[in-house]
Amino acid sequence: MSMVHGEAGYLLQYFQRKSIGNPTFYHAYQMDAEEQITNVFWADALMLIDYEYFGDVISLDSTYCTNSSHRPLTLFSGFNHHRKAVIFGAVLLYDETVESYKWLFETFLEAHKKKMPQTIFIDQDHAMARALIEIMPEAYHGLCTWHLMQNCIKHLGNLMKGESHFLSDFKKCMCEYENEDQFDKGLRNLLVTYDVKENNWFQKVYTIKEKWTSCYMKKVFTLGMRSTQLSESVNAVPEHYILKRWTKLARSETSCNVDVSYVDEDVDLSPAQSYKDICPRLIRIATEACRSPEAFTFLYKITNKLDRHMLESQKNQVNISQVNGFIDKVKESTSIHDDLAQTKGLKKEKATRVQNAQKVG
């Protein structure tokens, strides 16, 4: 596709088009001293709504893919009440430094109205971990077990040759032991059997065992993101201990939208603000209606009646000057020439980034 204004211009045009369609669409970018765009974050209306409901436990993964500029696509994700994957935000990172991750976490919280997750799973990236401690100190920081296994294979692959059971024994330490005594006993057997007491990587992993072993994470709210334990046993938990947003009725309750708790009944409220307030609520209703034919038919009839009513209302009450003022505001807010004047394109990495299948620590 032709990019009239170059990469940066096309990206900003895309964001502006999304914002016109839905003012709740959130995007932000960071520039360096040379006025080149380094990091870019965005979250659409559905991502914002999903996080409002299901953002208690999230994961951050930067191993999906890279673009032609060798920027990793990093996603914030989690589960909804049907245990289906949902996305809470996306970012293209120029580099993976502490400063970039600090900007990312601050921007993520800004997009989601400062709502902090209870638990976040990350890989063994030290820069990411340092930034998390500073920006989200109250959230529990767990290690992604998949990344941990990949790093184990990388650092201790020589112990997995032939008929070795090292990997399965390590998995037991990770997931199967019910209490800390069992874990300590199993780990000691592992150390002796495979002689890994002096391995630096294994020693570092052991010092943060409370971030990846099941027996140390029993009191951590994970929603079963590391295993199926929660989803299989949730029916046995008394109803008054289960938040409604984690049941199939999650979206049936009256919810605050992603911008305001309730729309203020202010007669002086500007058309632009009114649109921004009501749009996410209508998007949520439309999203839910499309999940079943009955709901869609019902909403379709209602919207037809509403459409006719609004047309009649406009004929009798609309203020032409107010409409023109609103259009001017939209044009002004969605103009991209100022943004393009301030930016000199997406910053390119001089060194070629090697695309790995997994993050290594």
TrEMBL record:
Q: What biological processes does GO assign it? A: regulation of DNA-templated transcription
Q: Where can this protein be found?
A: Nucleus
What's an example GO cellular component term for this entry? nucleus
Q: Which InterPro entries would you find in this protein's record?
A: FHY3/FAR1 (IPR031052), MULE_transposase_dom (IPR018289)
In this protein, which residues make up the domain named MULE transposase?
57-151
Q: Key word Aminoacyl-tRNA synthetase present in the record?
A: no
User: What role does this protein play?
Assistant: Putative transcription activator involved in regulating light control of development.
Question: What's this protein's name?
Answer: Protein FAR1-RELATED SEQUENCE
